[in-house]
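This part of the workshop introduces the protein records we will be handling. A record pairs a protein's sequence with a compact description of its fold. Backbone structure tokens are a discrete shorthand for how the chain folds in space. The question running through the whole workshop is how a given chain folds. The record below serves as our worked example for the rest of this section.
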Amino acid sequence: MKKKSMLDLHRVSAEEFKAVEKIPVAVVLDDVRSEMNVGSVFRTADAFVIEHIALCGITGKPPSHEIHKTALGAEDSVSWSYHASALEAVQQLRLEGYTICSIEQVHGSVSLEQFTIEPGKKYALVFGNEVKGVSQAVVDSSDCCIEIPQHGTKHSLNIACSAAIVMWHFFSAITK
């Protein structure tokens, strides 16, 4: 097997990407402290044509050398905004018709593989701080909480890994 070249991959430019139809999913980053994680989320959002990223609280924002190192330019293709708090962001997204889904381990959460993604519905996926997770105020304001099933000795995944798993799950269900 021969690896594909950049020409074989038929990638669009950042400007062309902005005109591409996106899936009806927004990502909210609630006080994510690592700019490397932020960059990874941008890059994954680009791969799965996510509509928008809301950067909240202490979450770093472009332009940033650290974000660029992992985003590889996706911070220029994916639409984003900054909000003083994640609660402010989810309240705005709710007014725009999004269903707010915090990705968090809570009593009553729905396992990711059991969550039904409804066609035509808009979703906002909230990912939290590397240590504290999604803030309790945002969890309380969420329409649902989704949990990624895990069977090892650790109780959580890195936020960039969690975001990639969940974004892929939504992308694959929506684009079937």
Q: What stands out?
A: The mean pLDDT is 96. The longest helix spans residues 159-174.
